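Why this split exists: single-chain examples teach little about how molecules sit against one another. For that reason, every record in the complexes split bundles all components of an assembly together and asks for one structure covering all of them. Below is a record exactly as it appears in the raw files.
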Amino acid sequence: MSDKNRKTSGNRTFQLSRRKALKGLAAGVGALALPGKDASAAFWESFFQKNFRELSKSEIRDVVSRLEKEYSTRYGKPVQVKTSPPMEGVLYGYGLDLSRCIGCRRCVYGCVNENNQSRDPQIHWIRVLRLDKERGVDLEHAEHYYNPAKVPEEGHFYMPVQCHQCENPPCTKVCPVQATWKENDGIVVVDYNWCIGCRYCMAACPYGARHFNWKKPGLPAGEMNPDTHYLGNRPRPVGVVEKCIFCMQRTREREGKYPACVEVCPVGARKFGNLLDHESEIRFVIENKRVFILKEDLNTQPKFYYFYSV
Amino acid sequence: MKKVWAFIKGCFTLLGRGSKLYYTWVCLLLVFMGIGILAYANQMYNGLITTAMRDQVSWGFYISNFTFMVWVAAAAILLVIPAYVYQWKPIKEIAILGELVAVSAMVMCLLFVTVDLGRPDRFWHLIPKIGILNFPQSLLAWDVVVLNLYLVLNFSIAGYMLYSYYYRREPNMKYVTPLLLFSIPAAISIHTVTAFLYNGLAARPFWNASILAPRFLASAFCSGPAGMILMFQVIRKWTKFRIKDEAIFKIAELIAYAMFINLFLLGAEVFKEYYSDTAHLAPMKYLYQGLHGHADLVSYIWTATLFNITAFFLFLIPQTRENQVTLNIGCILVFVGVYIEKGMGLVIPGFVPDVLGGFYEYSPTGVEILVSLGIWATGLLIFTMLLRIAIPIMNGDFHVSEDGIHPHIGDELFLVRRVEEIEEEADLLSQ
């Protein structure tokens, strides 16, 4: 369970030998086939790349520079791939004010622009549900595809759903290859270069927060956000799962930086902060407002709190 | 080692020999495999978008077929138990065929999982030591382990026994018996683990019922043997291999019991969901009645239910169980019934309505159907090849010749219509 202690001294020696073996294999096969020696080498390097959590510092540097080169060429602009680790003493929490949300979906598209989701086919990390005020939070009667000329609509309220960054995530548990895990700041991440695309995590997630690249993502170069994180919003390959990562390319850089959805919300329905900081806004919300947790009975312990400010 | 090599060489020689019918059958399967490969190439090139699966229904036809093939593999233990635990001779003679079914079914299982992967090029991430197998946390990791174990186990048992018969020796039961006995819990484990794979997901109330693993076992003991009886019927009419009626009737009787338990457990599940009438009823309602105007599965599931109940009575009543026509009909009904009920009927309602109450009605695309047909053809081809070797060995038509090196092949034809021979034998017996 303890993710950070995976490397014990016992299997360290073994890993070193395996690292060498894989490197040798990569170099060996790299000499074969594929046009252009450089392209071929990069292909095999990515093929034999290990799980992100097993990479040494120097290997991470190699991987990042390979990816930056690849993305910069593909999108015709300098692309940065960060690997910023979680900040000490930070555990992110998110609050969503159901009494304010007007269902405008600006968060949905703000997220897409920030996080380089595929435009064709469209992938949205946030899904906004339209619910009836009469019924309350009754998912069976949720409307996913509401499309009126003007929101909010009479008799309805809106509930955006995205990854709940569970403390007890059912999705990471089921992954057969440990391609997804919870970081120390509470963000559940996916190593897009390790995921085998079995989609077991999608079956396990009770919030529909995981999305699959059914097709090669269509991301126009002009709309590509070059400020990326390896475990976050870098361009994804086909055939892997992706999800909301609380905009870690922004929020991990310095304290007080908000995810794109928080910034774009026109009514201030979205709150974000450090759960370990007693002075934070999110702590105030949890301690003083009426809070509810979606599917609380499943014991996923989300760090995503719905609340009513009025 | 030299002997093993000679045996393998002999087997390949044998595979190349056969009647016109045998060649036609093999070619037909190869054509379907070719179509399947082309369809899969299309899927690889364009991505899984060529399937009807989407974020809401993220598993579909492939995983349904995978789940069903796990049942079929169970057939083996239904033969192993009477043959080796109760030493019942008529079934002991055919137990090895059960193991060959298990081998073919396991290969199909692994193929169905592979074609479902978004990144099959990264399959090596699953190999312990080279990659990372998330064992024991992930039930999928457990499944990878038990399925491969079951495949190797059955292949070794059948392979060793056939190898011994080929060299005209009795297999050393000191080695075989423990493996055979071990294959019983191993077979139960492949079902339990596959059931737990679904069962463990609290997000999907339709699967999150503790009755699921017993239900899996019960339906496995219906569909596997039903498929096997149908195969026996073909084998004993078209090859030289004779299978006694009493063995087949005994298996049919076992199906009746298994089907009773299957229907009973289903009833228990239906009662619990409908009577308590909670929010968790939605997927079952979608399956049996349709929900909010979405009713794609309703006609299928009622067909399956009707098939299963009819087959139960056909197998329960001795007269219909022991009549070749009703017996064959019953087997087809069970096979198709369970294929629907525990294939798509199990997987799809897990996803509809989805976790946020959305509806996406899934029905497989042409690519999915063609790829699946290709895998079925592959499984049948493997099974045919295994039979091509096993049946002559068991009949004494394929063994090492006097010189101790070259094979003796007594049956050049393999697949031929044997009705006259069967009638002659019956005449002889009655005289």
